[in-house]
Structure formats: structure tokens, C-alpha cells
Amino acid sequence: MTTAEFTVQRSWKSDRRSPLLWLWSHIRRNWIWIFGVFFGALANALLAGAPAVLAGQAFDTLLADPSSTTFLLRTAFLIAITQITRGLLQVARNFSAELIGQRLERDTRDEMYGSLMGKSMQFHDSHPAGDLMARATNDVREMNLMFNPGLNLVVGSASFLLVPLIAAPRINPWLVLAPIAYLLLYIIETWRYLRELNPATRSVREEFGNMNTTLAEAIDGIETVKGAAQELRETDRFRRSLATWRTAFIWQGDIEAKFIHLLLLGLVQTAALALSLFLYERGQISVGDVVTYNGLMLLFGFPTFVGQFAYSQVSSGLSSARRVLEIIDEKTALDENVGGYDQPMRGALVFDNVTFSYAGMPTLENVSFSVQPGQTIAIVGQTGAGKSTVAKLINRIYDVNSGRVLVDGVDVRDWDLAALRRQISIIEQDIFLFSRSVSDNIAFGCQDADRDEVEAAAHKAQAHEFILNFRDGYETEIGERGVTLSGGQRQRLALARAFLTDPQILILDDSTSAIDSATEDRIQRAIEEASRGRTTILITHRLSQIRWADQIVVLKKGRIAAIGTHEDLLQQSEAYRNIFASYE
Ligand code: ADP
């Protein structure tokens, strides 16, 4: 099993063995900027320690000789220089971190989108769009924030932890005790904090995904919601998912509130003051040393203050990375089979003893039939008999459980997937149009078609006239920002799409929609035109279309009840007569 039905070629490849390795494989490509972050952070911390050291020296000098004002001026000047340099380095460091964060967001979102496009229908059937959207937008954004400000502050504050550790023993070896004690406490506490925080941030991310799913479904199904007057109940459902999300947030907040580093710092700073005064009393260090040392201890304030926020951000980002990687890395049952059979299609189709079930629910059993190139076959049966499923097995939206589907004598699983799908067109019951122009929608499967080709296809599909009636003709926007189309118009646009891609096998799934007879007549003509010269599979209730099929397959509860021409079946098949009667 692989992770995609198709893959996007990129100059980089990510390491998907674990969320951490995955993040690192994205981040490490920016190694120059990583250097910028580390160098900036370390230099910043060292320079932040400078005022304490300089002030200590000034104290000692002034205590020895109160008239040495030039020394004081020199100290002030040095402090100014070090702090201006520090400011400039901060800019460079924050720039580097922001750049890495933004690139991380861009690249991981790109990777996720490519991966979503490549996932099989089984995958998309079982993942709500709202949750995928939450992962592709919000979680990817969290990963950016994890790097900056999250990790940027972690690296920055870690450098602040080091400076007192390096500088203190240079004054007196005993003075290293307080920084060491704080560092140990800091590490232990942070480890505990992260361990408690991780499940909470994970839960916040998950609940956000669930909330988004509820929202997306209600908006997607708004017509049904309104039609059934269920607005109040849907609002209630949404409120409930908001409440669950809120509970997860409170859990996270509760843990964040128990970030006791600040308390520990207060205790250690008190101990440090006592220790330095004790050493001063015994004459082992000077007043200046006391000032420097306690000034250095103040550096711990930064990692302590930002820790709570920065580690939460890192924890959220890691939870998000896990969620995004989970999707990217999910295996799909189909693979793109590059290097498989890739020849111009003739259009011969064979179902050889095919059995198929959706997640354990038997849908087709021992279905066998064959179609010659150029023939038209109609598949009829009650709703739920498995007609659409037959269509979906031909271009490998799903794979059979047993038996074989052969196109031109080659098992569809041995075809190069792109070559197979390129040469088969399915016009679904539920025709999807993008919020783009009419012309872009027609040219969807054949993006380099010019205007003349698009119009010719629309003519053949009997769509040209109604398109010209739109205000901007072929440039009219469809969907959210533009016109909405009737069922019959959608179907003809889909047919125009099919004319343009010129497939060898055309599948028309048209079990729905009552259409007025004038439109029906036009669609009938368009379909006749479309079926010329190619294998056509019609899934339809329209008797006018069924009648002239070369062959009719009658499906009943996933099994073939009869096969033959209209006349044969009328005589021989009870099931067909029943269906025929119910259609009339
Ligand atoms: P028809 O086109 O004849 O109305 P379908 O092929 O759409 O029938 O469906 C056959 C059966 O398979 C139905 O019982 C339907 O509920 C089920 N089914 C269809 N699509 C799916 C799916 N994606 N996941 C699970 N079950 C499905």
C-alpha cells in the first residue's frame, strides 16, 4: 500500500517516520536561517548579561575611588553599545525565525494539499471535509506559530539559562550552586509540564476539528437544514461542539495555570542573594560581585516568564504536526501504478465475476457482463441495487474484492491509473461545478482547450444556447459568486466536459432528477451524440434512453437478474418488466 494515487514531484522530500523527524526535515532545509536563530539567541543572552557585569565593575571602582566619573561614563557607554548591538541581533534572529515559520507553513500545507488530492475515495469517504479543512488551515498555522514565536522563544530563553551558569563560577565557584539548582528544577518542571500539557493540546486540536466538521456539514447541507426547519437543532449541535472545545481549552488552561516556574525562581533568587551575601560577609567576594551575581540571576526571569506561553505553543504545534502527518501518511488501498499498462483505449469492458462491498457491506455479488468497443449498455435496477457502484469500479474509484474488471482485456489494476482515468469519463448523478467561469468548468478535464474547442463541445452538448443567455456568456461565474444552474443545465455542461476530453468509455449516471420534456429531448440528443464512437454506460431511469441501448443489464440487490436487449428482456425477465412498469 502507498499513501497516494498520484504524487507531486518536488525538489524536496520529507521524512515521515515521526512528527518530529517530519518537522525537522522541513526545517533543516533552512539551515542558514537556523544558524541565524541560534547565533542571535546566544549573542542576545551574552549581551543581556553584560549590564550586570559592567554594573558590578562600576560598583567596585566607585567604592574604591568615588571620584572616577570617567569610568562611570565608560560603563554607561559600553552598556549602550552592547544593548544596541543586542537590539540589531534580535531583529536578525526574529527575522530568521519568522522566515522559517512561514516557510514551514507554506511547505507543509503544500505537501498536505498534494497528498489530499492523491488520496483514494475510500479515504475521502471516511474523513469529513470539515476536519480535513481544519487540519489543512488551522493545524498547519499552529505549526508556523510553534516555530515562531514558540521555538524561537525556547531557544532564546535556553540561552538565557546558560549565561548565569557560565558567568557565576568565574566570580566564585560556590556561586554556581544557585544557577545549577534552578536549571535542574527548570528542566524537571518543564518536562512534567509538557507531559501533562500534550494530551490537553491534542484534545484542543481534535475538538477544533470536530467543531469545524459540524460547521462545514451544516453549511454544506444548509438547504436540507432549512427545508426540514432544523436551524434551531443545528445551532444546538454546534453549541454542543463549541462547549466540548471549550472544555478542552479549560483543561489546557488549568495545566498552564500550574506552571510553577515563577515560584521556583523566587525561591532560588532569594537563596542566591543569601549565598552571595554570605560569601561577601566572609570576604570572599566584593560588593560589585554581589551586584553582578544577583543581576545575572535576573536573567532567569526571561525563560521563566515566556516558558509558559512558549511551551504551550510548542506543544500545540506538535499536536498539530501529528494530526497533519497522520493524514499525509495514511495508506490508501489504491496506488498510481506508474509504469502500468498505458495504451490508447479501445473501449472493451468486461466484468468478470465481480464481488464488492463497502466496508463489509456486500454491494455487488458475482457480477459478470461484457461490452464491445463502441456499444451502449444501460444498467437498470431499483435504487440501491448497486448501479453507481458498477460505474465506480470501472475507473478504480474503488477496487473489487474479488473477480476482475477488464478494460481492453487488461485488469484495471494493471493499468497506469492516470492513463485509465484519462480515457474514461464519468458524469455523476451529483454533478459538481467549480466556482469558476462556465468556460473553465467545461475545460476542466482538458485545461489547454481553446475557446473554439470549448464552444464546439458546448454545441454538441446542447448547452451553447443557454450559456449565451447568461449575462457574460462563457465567462459567467458559476456558484457562490455567480449563476446557479438547473439539473438539466448542469448535466449538459458535464456532457460538454466529456466531449472535450473525448474519452473511450463514457459513463453517465443519471438516475436522478425529473426534467421537463423539452430539456429531456435536448439531453437525449446530446447523449446520442456523445455515445457515438465510444463505449457508453448509461445508468438511467429514462425509457427513451434504455430502449436503444445495445444491451441492458438488470441489477437486483447487487446481483445480475437479467441481461439482454429491450425486446428480449420484456419477454424473458420478470424483474425487467417490473422495473419497466415502475419507470412508466
Ligand atoms: P444505485 O446506484 O443502484 O442506487 P449504489 O451503487 O449507489 O446504488 O449503492 C448500492 C449500495 O451501496 C447502497 O446500499 C448504498 O447505500 C451503498 N453505498 C453506496 N455508496 C457507498 C459508500 N461510499 N459507502 C458505503 N456504502 C455505499
Describe the model.
The chain has 584 residues and is of the alpha/beta class. The protein folds into 2 domains: 311 residues, ABC transporter transmembrane region fold, CATH 1.20.1560.10; 235 residues, P-loop containing nucleotide triphosphate hydrolases (Rossmann fold, 3-Layer(aba) Sandwich), CATH 3.40.50.300. The protein is 63% helix and 11% strand. It contains 21 helices and 10 strands. The strands form 2 sheets. A 6-stranded mixed β-sheet has the order 6-7-8-3-9-10, sandwiched between helices. A 4-stranded antiparallel β-sheet has the order 2-1-4-5, with helices on one face. Helix 2 runs antiparallel to helix 10, helix 3 runs antiparallel to helix 5 and helix 9 runs antiparallel to helix 10. The longest helix is centred in the N-terminal third of the chain and has 50 residues. The chain starts with 18 loop residues before the first helix and ends with a helix. 38% of the residues are buried. The site of adenosine-5'-diphosphate has 13 residues, from strand 2 and helix 12.
The CATH superfamily of the largest domain is known as: ABC transporter type 1, transmembrane domain
Helix content: 55-70%
CATH first level of the largest domain: Mainly Alpha
Question: How far from one another are the termini?
Answer: 47 Å
Shape: elongated
Pairing-aware structural class of the strands and helices? alpha/beta
CATH architecture assignment of the largest domain: Up-down Bundle
Strand content: 5-15%
Give a short account of the largest sheet.
6 strands, mixed
